[in-house]
Amino acid sequence: MEARNLHGLLAQSARRNPGAVAVVDPGVNELTYDEVDRLSDRVRDRLRACGVNPGDRVGLYIRKSVDSIAILFGALKAGAAYVPVDPDAPAERCAYILDNCAVRVIITESRLERALTTELNRLGSKPVIIALEETADRAIPPLQVALDRCDAITPATSRSSHPSTSADLAYILYTSGSTGRPKGVMLTHGNALSFVDWCSETFEPVTSDVFSSHAPLHFDLSILDVYVPIKHGARIVLIGEELGKDPLALAPLIVEQGITMWYSTPSILSLMANYGKLERFRFDGLRVVNFAGEVFPIPQLKAIKARWTAPRFFNLYGPTETNVCTYQEIPREIPETQTEAFPIGRICQPNRGRVVDLDGRDVAKGEIGELVVNGPNVMVGYWNLPENNARAFLVDDSGERWYHTGDLVVETDDGVYIYRGRRDRMVKRRGYRVELGEIEAALARHPAIRESAVVAVEDGSAGIRVRAYFSARNGDRPSIIALKQFCSEHLPRYMIPDTFGLLESLPRTSTDKIDYQRLKTLT
Amino acid sequence: MRQDVMPAVKSFILEKFLPGEDPQLLTPTTELMRSGILDSLATLELVTFLEQRFGIELEAHELGGKLNSLAEIERLVQAKLPTA
């Protein structure tokens, strides 16, 4: 039997239904299955001609487009793992990531190339860069033009796609790191397929389904968005970075594109309920609404359900390291009296979960402990971080590895997990993981800041607010506008603190550690 | 009827998104978006504020890149206000 891998899903759907539309960039262009298959073949051949070998990494520093989907598959066909980085994040952070995992080729856009190259040079990193230029006719994919240009100089030899197996790396997704540097979560074809197959059973997709692709590609929600529709010969509707944040534009888009399967963070669903003027439209096509990434407060969940009455709603839970590992369907009617958020639910088969104490011993049902997960969804490890890898897993007596989610949960008698908080200083902001330590590490680079401490406090309507406290060097007080500007140059937008507070000195505990609890009580 | 748009918007932004900042540092041309002062959620809150405070309705296509400074916001709102 042929090995199963992610690019095999595309090949299969392209054989079955070559003329069906695979991916749509609304208002720009669309590609059929056959076109994505052939364009990704060309990417594979070009990458191989640029020296990419099976097992290498390929970076994507590019806005979401039909091209970016073809590039993912092209990299996989070449046997490489792709590394998507945030095109909206500072070039410095992106270059760090691409250098960290030693990508051999980066595919980017010409408007981003210069800043990226400057940062890569600073790091002494010299990958091959393929820059896509905007085309005058927006319907022509810039990727096709770039490949034609390369072929005109040296034609790329046609190769066969790599027969990747389930243990081969498929992609590396970088998440916020507590020491100030993002860390790369390594995931295999097998990891992704296990989750994709679970989605098939749970959501029963059909070729006529239309999937939203709202999350950026560096976010693990994109795995469902891309590979589940491709497996089933369904359609992907790309929602770009700008449009994705604009609830007024999203509502009509869902209707016009006939989206049937929606997947996003609760934040964007709340934004649509609050600001999307949803009463103007009928959302009859929606069949499933999945949300993940953070807790969905009941009032906001009720608000969107009141507008979208037809679809089934699912709460999907899981850190990038496991993709989704538990799920809970939301009942059609939410009881009037319910105020507590829904549980994160049951484990996704065939994965297994346990709730353990600080020593790794199982706690009784009903007791609070940390959720650890074992099974085919669980990552191989972090790229080049042996110490983090040792800490990330609990190894049991039979040698099985259980990933420490860092999430505190309670398991009910019937195997449902209820989320109770974090074990560490990681918070979720609009669905993104934010290590408060990474913000502190960025602030430490500001010349006028002597010391800083960042806390997250609950804020009824908006989820959490991130507050940075700092003391200044030589009484030199930077303005808040200047601090926000500084952060926007060193951190992704979702990590920029909401407020800054200048303190004479930071409060300390009796053991001379920063007193975060006290900082949280300041207003 | 012309309304004093700028001072109202300025104090809203200072209070909501820049608490503690010296008001003099937020000028009519201070960049609001690219500088990290307003993120996407903050922008929506600002739009709601503008709609309610000035009794206007703003559509998605009218906003693209037009809220990047107090001066731009002033222009956008003034254009929407009924003329006397």
Name the descriptors.
heterodimer; A: 523 residues; alpha/beta; five-stranded mixed sheet; five-stranded antiparallel sheet; 33% helix; B: 84 residues; mainly alpha; 4 helices; globular
Tally of strands of chain B: 0
Strand content of chain A: 25-35%
The tally of helices of chain B reads 4
Largest sheet of chain A: 5 strands, mixed
Outline the low-pLDDT stretches of chain B. none
Mean pLDDT of chain A: 94
Helix content of chain A: 25-40%
Query: Segments of chain A where pLDDT lies below 50 for 5+ residues?
Result: none
Shape of chain B: globular
- Global shape of chain A: globular
Widest beta sheet: strand line-up of chain A: 11-12-13-14-15
Q: Biggest interface, which chains?
A: A-B, 26 and 23 residues
Range of helix content of chain B = 40-55%
Assembly state (oligomeric):
heterodimer
Please report the number of helical segments of chain A: 16
* Strand composition percent of chain B: under 5%
What would you note in describing this structure?
The complex is a heterodimer of chains A (523) and B (84). With 523 residues, chain A is α/β, with parallel strands linked by helices. A 5-stranded mixed beta sheet of chain A has the order 11-12-13-14-15, with helices on both faces. In chain A, strands 16, 17, 19, 20 and 21 form a 5-stranded antiparallel beta sheet that branches. Chain B has 84 residues and is an all-alpha fold. Chain B starts with a helix and ends with a helix. The model of chain B has no long low-confidence stretch (mean pLDDT 88). Classes of the chains: A alpha/beta (523), B mainly alpha (84). At the A-B interface, helix 10, helix 11, helix 15 and strand 26 of A face helix 2 and helix 3 of B.
What does the secondary structure layout of this molecule look like, with pairings?
The complex is a heterodimer of chains A (523) and B (84).
Chain A (H helix, E strand, L loop, with lengths): L5 H11 L4 E5 L3 E4 H17 L7 E5 L4 H12 L3 E4 L6 H10 L4 E5 H14 L4 E5 L9 H12 L15 E7 L7 E6 H15 L6 E4 L7 H12 L2 E4 L2 H4 L2 H11 L3 E4 L1 H10 L12 E5 L5 H10 L4 E6 L8 E5 L15 E2 L4 E5 L11 E7 L6 E2 L3 H7 E3 L5 E11 L5 E6 L3 E4 L2 E4 H8 L5 E11 L3 E10 L7 H11 L8 E4 L13 H6 L2
Parallel strand pairs in A: 1-10, 3-4, 3-5, 5-6, 9-10, 11-12, 12-13, 25-26
Antiparallel strand pairs in A: 1-2, 7-8, 8-18, 13-14, 14-15, 16-17, 17-20, 19-20, 20-21, 22-23, 24-25
Chain B lengths: L4 H13 L22 H15 L5 H4 L6 H11 L4
Helix pairs in contact in B: 1-2, 1-4
